[in-house]
């Protein structure tokens, strides 16, 4: 149905995903709230595959892709890359992985990300894991992250916070209005945050098994 472009896109990507029918959890929260850290814990304990949108975009820059320069400039400015680029990377990563359970970290980051992902893949998240953390704590963590990231400087961090407030929080609000948000106090130490995360995953997994 729809345009030829839509049909083609379904044939090349949508069909691979609809066959898979993957289970997806969106992991959201401000920059530095601890998304990547907690995803690593969830992978270890609950068998999900972690897909960080930011990591996929950074790998795309490194691969020498034709979009690389554009992505690099957007990340440096703290701006959100057009969803068609990010969604293609996510679709490919899901299709190529044998697992059927994915943590999608740092996506959707704006309304365009959200609506396009749903339209292209037909996938709705099981729930949205939301790491709630004060800006001062996030700023402190980002300045101490030491991963050599070009966007972990105070100037870009301020831009990323603005984008988060203006564009990403409304997406969390959208899912909240649908009862899909599981909010975690992310200002606590890593272990305590993970204790709270665990309680969300254990009952969900048990329910799925019975
Ligand atoms: N609960 C926490 N308390 C203190 N530091 C944390 C906590 N969670 C993560 N960190 C540290 O903060 C930085 C940002 O964490 P990260 O998981 O990369 O966040 P995000 O992916 O949300 O940007 C990292 O250096 C990480 O080690
Ligand atoms: N859905 C997404 C996710 C990240 N990005 C870009 O990648 C940057 C880093 O994202 P990230 O998720 O790795 O950052 P953190 O929240 O982990 O600090 C963002 O500031 C955006 O520039 C994007 O454009 N679209
Ligand atoms: Mg991250």
From TrEMBL:
InterPro entries per the UniProt record, alphabetical: Adenylat/UMP-CMP_kin, Adenylat_kinase_CS, P-loop_NTPase, UMP_CMP_kinase
Domains as described in the record: Consists of three domains, a large central CORE domain and two small peripheral domains, NMPbind and LID, which undergo movements during catalysis. The LID domain closes over the site of phosphoryl transfer upon ATP binding. Assembling and dissambling the active center during each catalytic cycle provides an effective means to prevent ATP hydrolysis.
Record-linked Gene3D superfamilies: P-loop containing nucleotide triphosphate hydrolases
Binding site for ATP: 32-37, 145, 188
Subunit structure and binding partners: Monomer.
Record's protein name: UMP-CMP kinase
Molecular function GO terms recorded: ATP binding; nucleobase-containing compound kinase activity; phosphotransferase activity, phosphate group as acceptor
Annotated residues for binding of a ribonucleoside 5'-phosphate: 58, 79-81, 106-109, 149, 160
Cofactor note as given: Binds 1 Mg(2+) ion per monomer.
Lineage: Eukaryota, Viridiplantae, Streptophyta, Embryophyta, Tracheophyta
EC number(s) stated in the UniProt entry for this protein: 2.7.4.14
GO CC field: cytoplasm; nucleus
Binding site for CMP: 113
Main location: cytoplasm
Localization terms from the record: Cytoplasm; Nucleus
BP-aspect Gene Ontology terms: 'de novo' pyrimidine nucleobase biosynthetic process; nucleoside monophosphate metabolic process; pyrimidine nucleotide biosynthetic process
Catalytic activity: UMP + ATP = UDP + ADP; dCMP + ATP = dCDP + ADP; CMP + ATP = CDP + ADP
Species annotation: Centaurea solstitialis (yellow star-thistle)
UniProt function note: Catalyzes the phosphorylation of pyrimidine nucleoside monophosphates at the expense of ATP. Plays an important role in de novo pyrimidine nucleotide biosynthesis. Has preference for UMP and CMP as phosphate acceptors.
NCBIfam families on file: UMP_CMP_kin_fam
Protein family (similarity comment): Belongs to the adenylate kinase family. UMP-CMP kinase subfamily.
Keyword line: ATP-binding, Cytoplasm, Kinase, Nucleotide-binding, Nucleus, Pyrimidine biosynthesis, Transferase
PANTHER family noted in UniProt: NUCLEOTIDE KINASE
Cofactor dependency: Mg(2+)
